[in-house]
Backbone:
């Protein structure tokens, strides 16, 4: 047997290939040759499959990724159980294994030790890594998660949970909607395939296509297209720079359904301690990245650097005043409020000036 074949993890490889192939083939054959289904069954089961697909993806992004891998917020035991239950049906491995691998990805991004390093090629980062014994058998190292009894339970009984939630549950819902087979194939097999592809894009396309506003050191990128396809995970440049922030899209209008779901969970008491990075820190990273190209120039020394400092300082002052305002007495409130307004006006004026300077720096370069 050649060495290449010996390296293949056949159980994962066959599942990743056969699940979509059999699901599509079975669906096509059934739709052509059977007359035991109705249009309304197809419609309702597809609708259920679509909702289940979104929930499956959110349980991975909100659960496996932002909760278990990064601990960017704390979740009520009930929410943890819901997330672990739904995510088992994604067929992406247990939360424990997934999170352990993902932490290695962040720690060793782009190096040989990164299990899904983009430097080994797009295919490797997307799916290829899972087909190799070498990456599938990476030892688990996540002592904090091993102590979590629900995470440990999902890991120990993963085979049962994944088949139960991934295939049996959709088949039961399909049966209740009038067609067990369509439930199994559409909301089971096809949904698993689509949700897997959405997650896999974060490891491949997010390290290939997009902008690098916060750091150019590594390959992670921000891309709106990937963000839409992955429920908010496409702000990957930001995420790799500030991995403990529960948001990936930092502005309220940035497309990040995972962030909104966490906020909703917090609103109804199922999540708390949502971690965010101070805006001044984010700004610092952004301005530094914008000026990297000009570090050696005179223009940087004379114009860009002093203004950079001014912007950061006015933002830090604003953040300090905001904290003071929360604890201030009634008499002090008005004074702090007007100081906050001044800091904000200064900040906005400096930012305008910054944009003009960056434009002219690019013209001169
Ligand atoms: Zn990444
Ligand atoms: Zn991450």
Residues:
């Amino acid at each position: 047997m050649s060495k290449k074949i010996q390296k293949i993890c056949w159980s994962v490889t066959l599942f990743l290939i056969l699940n979509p192939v059999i699901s599509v083939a079975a669906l096509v054959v059934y739709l052509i040759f059977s007359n035991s289904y109705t249009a309304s069954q197809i419609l309702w089961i597809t609708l259920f499959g679509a909702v289940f697909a979104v929930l499956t993806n959110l349980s991975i992004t909100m659960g496996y990724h932002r909760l278990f891998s990064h601990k960017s917020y704390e979740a009520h035991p009930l929410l943890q159980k819901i997330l672990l239950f739904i995510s088992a049906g994604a067929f992406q491995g247990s939360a424990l294994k997934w999170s352990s691998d993902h932490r290695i990805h962040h720690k060793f991004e782009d190096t040989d030790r990164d299990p899904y390093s983009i430097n080994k090629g797009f295919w490797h980062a997307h799916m290829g890594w899972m087909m190799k014994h070498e990456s599938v058998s990476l030892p688990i190292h996540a002592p904090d998660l091993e102590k979590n009894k629900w995470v440990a339970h999902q890991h120990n009984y993963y085979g049962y949970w994944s088949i139960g939630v991934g295939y049996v549950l959709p088949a039961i819902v399909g049966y209740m909607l009038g067609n067990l087979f369509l439930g199994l194939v559409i909301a089971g097999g096809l949904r698993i395939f689509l949700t897997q592809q959405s997650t896999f894009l974060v490891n491949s396309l997010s390290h290939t296509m997009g902008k690098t506003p916060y750091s150019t050191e590594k390959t992670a990128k921000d891309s709106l297209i990937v963000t839409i396809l992955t429920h908010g995970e496409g702000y990957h440049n930001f995420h790799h720079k500030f991995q403990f922030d529960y948001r990936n899209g930092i502005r309220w209008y940035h497309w990040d359904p995972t962030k909104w779901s966490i906020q909703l969970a917090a609103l109804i008491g199922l999540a708390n301690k949502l971690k965010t990075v101070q805006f001044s820190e984010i700004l610092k990273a952004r301005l530094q990245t914008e000026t990297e190209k000009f570090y050696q120039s005179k223009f940087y020394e004379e114009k860009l650097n002093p203004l950079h400092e001014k912007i950061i300082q006015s933002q830090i002052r604003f953040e300090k005043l905001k904290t003071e305002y929360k604890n201030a007495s009634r008499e002090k409130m008005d004074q702090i409020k007007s100081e906050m307004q001044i800091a904000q006006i200064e900040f906005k004026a400096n930012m305008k000036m910054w944009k003009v300077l960056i434009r002219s720096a690019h013209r001169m370069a």
